[in-house]
Design brief:
Length: 598
């Protein structure tokens, strides 16, 4: 085959000189500079680079090195901000992770936490336009739209009075799916059948609460309602409730016990919560029964109560209530009200659900990652007197030592000493340290190591509420907290808490190092840096943290505080307190995510 004759210049191309290569590199760098500085590509590349840096801390070795540097005070700049799309991030309720899990028994909507080494070590930023929240009690009726610009509920539920957008605010008319005219007339109707006023009822649980207008309306009656809902398609029900200053918690009734002790609530309410109470051999009804105080009231509004095409479900619901000897107080339209018997239910009677009493090996107040049991909790399984009518009314309940205090040795004496101690300490916080307790700046408060709830009890004269957290590996004293008419949950502080970012004004912890230690050991299960990054996630900008511990621990906490952008000061303990203890008071700085090009 013949060859094509090419000019010599084509057959022997000119070799590139070093000068040519350097010139090409120079012009390429100039072009790249202009692209990065003057086009959106620079922003996106910087953002992706920052995210890569953050995600690199999930490499255990790099992450552990960064934690050590922060603890030692050798990390001389704040921990990086998380990416802008993480403003509402909840590590254990992450839809991207949980959507891949089984939907059986709502498993995918329960808590599923990443391992600590899998979580980026970064600080959650506020959304653009975030403002210091509207103060209580005005916040009950309106909040800043820019603090959570999620319009889905307002668009879908506005006609039912849930919430509406109005100028720079979301406003809350107080309605709900089953009470579109407002929660107040609905509560007045319930008051015809149950003792809403008079201090008989104090603690309530609202299941599937929406934006918590039911719980918000009960506050004026002296009833403290803990409202819960999962992170669902509406995205922000609980975030709206907490922004309003109403006690609320992200939670799902699925495969595990809810993180509360037995016989905690005087009233349990479900308004169109769509819980299949009679499914799985009435497992969910039995869990509600575990939580309801003997003599307490169960209110269910909406399906299946006298609901079209749900005759069988309604008949089954009545059957399981009869099997547990619940007294039918009223059926009013689509609302049913039952009263739980004061003593042990009539089990072990024959019933179509195969329900039996739980055996003595089952501690009914053990409720942290505890699988649901298909057995009924006998009243006699917990020592003490619990029925409504046999316990003091509110507010006398607050200071009377309940029999459940005997979960601790010399529990009654411990309870009384703890009450006195915290009355003294809160007075010192207020009068000497000049903390904002009792001012409009503080509404949502958390006690991370609550024990008997003495700190919260000392605050009841203030217009605040306290989430009392009892660490799951410590003595199960949460029943005492509920018996004195306060509210709270079990939690393990080596995991993130089930709340949205920026939901608490004031976080208090006595003995912070004990939260990360193995009980009875000096070994740590997790580290203070991760714990304080989680505290920062929960705390609102300009919020307050108070930490009590030994001087050595407080020094370490102060070093970490700078890394999480808090402004700490260290104080001596109150003169009357014994032991080696100091108090760190810190304010979270109000910082915002800045554009990488600025």
């Amino acid at each position: 085959m013949g060859h094509v004759n090419m000019p010599a210049s084509k057959r022997n191309p000119r070799q590139w000189t070093i000068l040519d290569i350097l010139s090409a590199v120079f012009f390429a760098l100039v072009l790249l500079f202009f692209l990065l500085v003057f086009t959106p590509l620079g922003d996106s590349m910087a953002a992706s680079g920052r995210q890569a840096l953050l995600l690199s801390t999930s490499d255990p070795r790099q992450r552990h090195r960064l934690v050590s540097l922060v603890e030692l005070g050798h990390h001389h700049k704040p921990i990086e901000a998380c990416p802008a799309d993480s403003v509402d991030h909840m590590p254990c309720e992450d839809p991207r992770r949980n959507s891949q899990l089984s939907r059986e028994l709502n498993w995918y909507r329960e808590r599923h936490c990443p391992l600590p080494d899998e979580m980026p070590l970064c600080l959650i930023p506020p959304p653009p336009g975030y403002k210091i929240p509207v103060q209580w009690p005005e916040s009950l009726h309106k909040i800043w739209h820019s603090n959570m610009p999620h319009n889905k509920i307002a668009d879908r539920k506005g006609h039912q009075g849930w919430m509406k957008e109005q100028g720079p605010y979301f406003i809350f008319p107080g309605g709900g799916t089953m009470f579109p005219d407002g929660a107040t007339p609905y509560i007045e109707k319930l008051g015809q059948y149950i003792p809403i006023t008079g201090g008989i009822l104090r603690t309530a649980l609202d299941i599937g609460c929406g934006v918590a207008s039911f719980g918000g309306s009960l506050l004026s009656e002296g009833i403290l309602t803990l409202s819960f809902a999962p992170r669902d398609s509406h995205k922000s029900q609980i975030q709206f409730a907490l922004e309003r200053g109403i006690p609320a918690f992200v939670l799902m009734l699925g495969t595990r016990r809810l993180p509360f002790p037995a016989f905690a609530f005087d009233l349990i309410h479900c308004s169109r919560c769509l819980i299949p109470f009679t499914a799985y051999n009435a497992t969910y009804f039995v869990e509600v029964d575990r939580l309801l105080r003997p003599g307490g009231y169960l209110v269910i509004s909406g399906p299946p109560v006298q609901w079209p095409k749900q005759d069988k479900e309604w008949a089954d619901l009545q059957s399981v209530a009869r099997a547990l000897c619940y007294e039918l107080i009223a059926v009013d339209g689509n609302t049913v009200i039952w009263k739980k018997p004061d003593g042990d239910s009539c089990l072990p009677n024959q019933n179509e659900f195969g329900l039996e009493s739980c055996d003595e090996s089952n501690d009914p107040s053990n409720a942290w990652y505890f699988k649901l049991r298909r057995c009924v909790t006998p009243t006699s399984s917990v020592n003490g007197e619990f029925p409504l009518g046999m316990i003091p009314k509110w507010p006398d309940r607050l200071t009377k030592a309940p029999s459940r205090a005997l979960v601790m040795k010399n529990g009654i004496d411990l309870f009384q000493a703890d009450t006195r101690r915290w009355t003294r300490r809160v007075a010192y916080y207020k009068n000497t340290l000049h903390l904002k307790l009792g001012t409009p700046a503080v509404r949502n408060v958390m006690d991370m190591n609550a024990f008997f709830g003495g700190f919260a009890a000392a605050l009841t004269s203030y217009p605040i509420w306290v989430m009392n957290v009892v660490p799951a590996r410590k003595p199960l004293t949460l029943g005492v907290i509920y018996d004195r008419s306060l509210i709270g949950v079990y939690h393990d502080w080596c995991e993130p808490f089930s709340t949205y970012p920026r939901t608490y004004d004031f976080i208090h912890v006595a003995g912070i190092e004990s939260l990360i230690k193995l009980p009875g050991s000096s070994k740590s299960r997790c580290n203070l840096v991760d714990l304080m990054v989680e505290m920062d996630r929960m705390l609102r900008p300009e919020g307050t943290v108070v930490i009590r511990d030994s001087p050595e621990v407080i020094d370490k906490v102060a070093r970490i505080a700078h890394a999480v952008r808090w402004m700490p000061t260290i104080h001596e303990k109150e003169p009357e307190s014994h032991g080696r203890e100091k108090i760190l008071v810190a304010t979270k700085m109000f910082w915002k995510l800045t554009s990488p090009s600025h």
